[in-house]
Amino acid sequence: MKVQKKAAINLFYIPAIVLFLVFVIYPFLHGIRISFTNWNGYSQTMKFVGIDNYVRLFQDANVRTALVNTLVYGIASTIIQNVLGLAYALFLNTKFKGRSIVRTVIYMPVMIAPLIMGYIMYFLFQYDGGALNDIIMLLGHEPVDLLANSSAAIAIIVMVNSLQFVGVSMVIYLAGLQNVPNMYYEAAMLDGASSWQRFKHITFPLLMPAISSSTILNLIGGLKLFDLVMALTSGGPGFTTHSLSTLVTNQYFSAQSAGYASAIGIFAFLLIMVVSNVVMKFFDKREVDV
Amino acid sequence: MQNKKKSNLWKYCLAIFIVFIHIIPIYMVIGLAFKSPYDHSSRWVLPGYFYLKNIYTALNKSGMLLALKNTILITGLSIILIVVIGAMAAYPISRNKSKLNKWIKGFIMGVMMIPPLSILVPLYSFMADVGGINTYWGIIVALVTFQLPTSIFLYANFISTIPVALEEAAAIDGCGPIQTFFRIIMPQLKPVTASVIIITGVFCWNNYQFALYLLQSPKVKTVTLAIAGFFSADAANMNGAAAAAFIGILPVIVLFLFLQKYFIQGMVDSAVK
Amino acid sequence: MKKLVVTMLIATMAIASAGCSKAPEEPKTETTETTAKKEKQETDVTLEFLYNLNGEAISNEVQAVCEQFTEETGIGVEAIMPGSNFSDIMKTRMASNQLPDVWTTHGWAVARYAEYLEPLNDFGFADHISSSIEEQITDKDGNLYTLPIDMDLTGIIYNVNVLEEAGVNVDDLKTWDDFNEACKKVKSIGKTPIQMGGKDSYTFGNLMDFIAPTFITNEDEANQEALLDGSFDWSKWNVVVDQVASWNAEGYFNKDAVTADFMTGVKALAAEEAAFMFHSASGISEIYVQNPDTEMGFMPLPAREDGLKTSLMTGEHFAIGMSKTTEHPEEAKKFMEFMAREDICAKLATKCGMPSGLDNVESDTGRLEPFYEKYTNNAEILNIPYFDRKYLPSGMWNDLCVTGGTILSGQDNATEEAVTQMKNSYEEKKAQE
Prior knowledge:
- Chain A has 290 residues and is mostly helical.
- Chain A contains 14 helices and no strands.
- Chain B has 12 helices and no strands.
- Chain B: One of its GO terms (biological process) is transmembrane transport.
């Protein structure tokens, strides 16, 4: 009887599974098929070329650049968002007037579409009339064209992405901190533990589930980064700031190599899957039960 | 006493600094939105006059009002579906920890990792075949499908923390699984639902890529499309664009302020347990 | 740490206390507000018309003309301008075979869209296609694919006042050496010789696309054939790349050439801070919007050496094609005939400020009139097609855009990399044909 009931509630995920199969898996399989062709993205004809696109992918210096950038965007953003998010959460967990305003302001940028955020940030970093250069010139220095330098542009993209979404990590950590029972601290205080010791031995281990959620969500988001890059640099100068996602669009539409672009897309998917699975495994081993 | 005040001063300085950093984007938008296009003063400087022409332009010329209406409709319906279908799917996954369900959970996480771009053109072709282009249901289905994994992820974590006792009691009283779900489980999901609404709602509201391709007719244009249209290649009117961005951001911020009380609580229960 | 915070605070205050800006005087421009007329749609048919003309004035005119069509015929038209993603959207729609009833073909009527376009040879306007554009919109079998409302005549646009101040006479700029000399003069008066907007990567595409024919294909049939049959020796491309690299080394580009956008360039020319821009004449109308008091002009592209002719490029600008598979062929035909009608076509071409592509239509090109008069049908000037549309396989426009940025990005081996990328992409696309 019980087994039957349990099996019956499995029916509840059928609507979701149907949606996935029809609107994600079916197009995705179609995309895999395209990745074995030389399709230009609009013609009614295409030719199967076997694994040519995948061979080319491993020889293409632009793909290598985009791969490295994607990892930088994903991993650096994740680190910054977590460290800063945790710092904000610890700070806002102390008592002072107006902290809810600070919390709201930190979360507010999350509400802005990344594409629009990119355009807004362009107003800040632009050479000609950019807000940052106004300050630099006020201090008596020559204006700088930061986005023209690919390393600086990559750093800016990471920074903007991190600061925009640090609110998500902060909220997760704030939630995590509310879950740490106060008596642990009280006991530690009695034992004369310093604040660093308390953080290291109580807060940090108990925050593991929060760290895990925050890391996974940020990592997947960072590895899929697209709109922000398009709005700030469009992947330029040259191919130097492309992520795999933006390179897919560039190759699909502008370069008219849809087959090759699909191969890059599949590669990006595999990369995201491998990286996030490694990270998930890492956390599975370390999570402490409260 | 003296010492305590001092430490609080330090906190306020830091708080002001943090607020300053994070308010920059919105500050820029507001500054530009209410400034004349011929005002070439620094972007740090707010206009010293009252100027509404950009807002007027954004509302009238780019069809922002229609876009707002469309986006509210699309986001609203999407959220309802994301909440209902997501909660339903999460229920068996967190209650029946069978091998099949573990696999299903992995599959759903996998969907989250597919870059939307790699399926965009096949998805468009499919939508075109079934008549979903330029329709509300077409974009809603796409948005719902791509936000479901996040919703399921949050709900599944939350449901795991609800004691099974109530359901068992309901089963003894003769409730079927459907009744149990809607009468017993759904009412308990309030806090996490606030998180789901904020996180997925913001995505739906801001979505650009799906809308760009699936909604080409101006009649079904969304807010982000309208704003991006302002910013696109040859558009000279940066102030109008900022005004449009301002109008587009306002509703989500209001929604957030309204829901934030529940939001944090929902995160406590879903993301960290 | 505390000091840092305090300094930051003071800095913030300082910026904030710099005060608020004063209301600027706005130039009084007559805004033609298109009042939304009630559509008198009598039939159920609504045609879908996708177009990609930027600029508010032109867009408003297109909408007004479509409304007039509805009033006269009772057929509805939904005119859609998808913005900078126009060609991506068109590709998606071609892929799914879901084309609009009519759309603008922006230079690709033959090379990209022919598969989906209805030949227009039976229309009345087919006999009136201007001879300088006919070849480019007709395929090998003589099928005409698009209705050229107007046509581009493109060279280098310049600010007359800046060149005057620098002591440059454009009529003397016959070769690139002359042009370089002019750049030097412009730089010496502290202004930007060549304005680029690399964030909008098509401005780099323009740059490469405009100078390439002067170095490679003009009056050189061997190279023309080699490019078309796939045997082109890409080491010859070094000349093109080196020219750009040398302008960069001399500091002739604006400092933010890689990251500025097109509008920054428009503003720089409007403010008389920059001299030249590689852009079609349509850019001039944008500049006049910013500053109606400045004086703009356009000039032919200089030649690689003495004795060769300077050149101007002609191509489609606002041209309309009709879907082969439209569900409303009769209505679409009526729409095409309407757009080709003398009064309508003249109105649209005039708004674009370009000569009409139909020889029976008079377009008022306004302040650019003297330039069109001077350069149209001038035996001294070569009339050439756009380089990429004619000589490169479809899809290589992207490579022109990207390699332009690569050369200016300052990375090692940038020039070699630019040449290699062009070569690889060309070979791969040729192999696909």
